[in-house]
């Protein structure tokens, strides 16, 4: 299972014309597919307008991702 987490700090960045969650998700999915993941093996989580200074588990989607992921078996990539 590949978990992709995307975040931007402001609502303006979340706009499709901004620096975009869409682009972060696209890159995450490309990495997963390079590692032979099937579409059904990929889960995406997005936090728009959430500061990076907030601990991941305290962010709305970040907390869900950490709860959904298998314990002790996740590795991460930053894009």
Strand content is 15-25%
Distance between the termini: 18 Å
Number of helices: 3
Mean pLDDT: 84
The count of DSSP E runs of length 2 or more, i.e. the number of strands, is: 2
Low-confidence stretches: none
Largest β-sheet summary: 2 strands, parallel
3D shape: flat
Helix/strand/pairing category: alpha+beta
Approximate helicity band:
25-40%
Q: Layout of helices and strands, plus pairs?
A:
Blueprint: E1 2-8, H1 11-14, H2 21-34, E2 42-48, H3 60-68
Parallel strand pairs: 1-2
How would you describe this structure to a colleague?
With 79 residues, this protein is an alpha+beta fold. It is 34% helix and 18% strand. The protein is built from three helices and two strands. The chain has helices at 11-14, 21-34, 60-68, and strands at 2-8, 42-48. Strands 1-2 form a two-stranded parallel sheet. The mean pLDDT is 84.
């Amino acid at each position: 299972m590949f978990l992709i987490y995307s975040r931007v700090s402001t609502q303006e960045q979340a706009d499709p014309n901004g620096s975009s969650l869409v682009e972060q998700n696209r890159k995450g999915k490309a990495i997963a597919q390079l590692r032979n993941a099937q579409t059904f093996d990929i889960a995406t989580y997005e936090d728009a307008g959430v500061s990076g200074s907030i601990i991941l588990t305290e962010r709305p989607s970040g907390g869900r991702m950490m709860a959904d992921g298998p314990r002790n078996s996740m590795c991460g990539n930053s894009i």
